[in-house]
TrEMBL record:
Name of the featured protein: Biotin synthase
InterPro entries: Aldolase_TIM, BATS_dom, Biotin_synth/BioAB, Biotin_synthase, Elp3/MiaA/NifB-like_rSAM, rSAM, rSAM_sf
Record keywords: 2Fe-2S, 4Fe-4S, Biotin biosynthesis, Iron, Iron-sulfur, Metal-binding, S-adenosyl-L-methionine, Transferase
Domain Radical SAM core residues, every copy: 39-267
Subunit structure: Homodimer.
Cofactor or coenzyme needed: [4Fe-4S] cluster; [2Fe-2S] cluster
Top-level division of the source organism's lineage: Bacteria
GO terms, biological process: biotin biosynthetic process
Positions that bind [4Fe-4S] cluster: C54, C58, C61
Record's cofactor remark: Binds 1 [4Fe-4S] cluster. The cluster is coordinated with 3 cysteines and an exchangeable S-adenosyl-L-methionine. Binds 1 [2Fe-2S] cluster. The cluster is coordinated with 3 cysteines and 1 arginine.
Protein task: Catalyzes the conversion of dethiobiotin (DTB) to biotin by the insertion of a sulfur atom into dethiobiotin via a radical-based mechanism.
Family the entry assigns: Belongs to the radical SAM superfamily. Biotin synthase family.
EC numbers, comma separated: 2.8.1.6
Species this protein is from: Maribacter algicola
Amino acid sequence: MSRVRHDWTKQEILDIYNKPMMELLYEAASIHREHHDPNTVQVSTLLSIKTGGCPEDCGYCPQAARYHTDIEGNDLMSVSHVKAQALRAKASGSSRVCMGAAWRNVKDGPEFDQVLEMVRTINKLDMEVCCTLGMLTENQAQRLAEAGLYAYNHNLDTSEDYYKDIISTRAFQDRLDTIDNVRKSNVTVCSGGIIGMGEKLEDRAGMLVALASLNPQPESVPINALVAVEGTPMEDIEPIAIWDMIRMVATTRIVMPETQVRLSAGRTQMSREGQAMCFFAGANSIFAGDKLLTTPNPDVNEDMEMFRLLGLNPQKPFTKISQPKTVEASESKFQSLNEKPKWSRPGHTIERNELAKQKAKLTD
Ligand code: SF4
């Protein structure tokens, strides 16, 4: 059985990534079979519970308020709306709901209380609940854990070196600190990144070094391909070749053998054959539904047809880790601390982000 290592070097990971394709696929598929059922793939649904108007400047993101995109902003969804969407997702085969809010960080108050209620509601539907709400304190992580949160998503996005070319409103270390706060609770960690943002292969390897060095490694690692959205600083970047995605998935599987590797954004640009190779290389989760937060995603019926063709079965919820118990708000041990944490704000200039911002001012 291949063991979990936390001491991978960038060069070792690059050597794996650059192996001849057939060798890479064989090694990744063999490790995948040691740790996972190769015919089971988790289907998750991503819900944007608060869309747009984000103060951050992530160069890939159409939800950043400073860029001019076609995204329609929405206030925080009601708990009943979220419940209805979760029930629909469950009926179409999803075992996990991931709720995303376009926030820089979580703030204690009525909106966070509403999110905690959403977590309680979905956990009681016997689905895995994940949230991605931005930076988070330890107390906030504990409150989410009590509500029954299964996973918290906080992507590293790319390598530490390339991070400062993508985002200027927070630092790579803030990401690591939030993941650390999540780890102090019983909530599992979901953290991955995006390829095809103009990074070097060394950056892809650097991101995997950072993720694999975490101890324990994240239970879930989403691998996204950039979906270039008009109005964002990355609008003109060409999509990556499917081979890059297959290599990235395979390498992730080899360096993080026990992790759930998620084939995430960018699937509309991939053929079924390409996705099948990603599953063979170790991807064992997809996001279902026609939208991934705000970018297009294959229709759920198309995905079920692909599962039928490939003989894949949707994974049942709580297969890896048992269901967390929901503590009601009235019995909670962790109350709001009204913290005002000092997350960093490097504020350096990223030329393409500045250009997109100027362009948006002229358009608005
Ligand atoms: S990726 Fe998240 S934090 Fe960054 S701009 Fe988009 S919504 Fe905001």
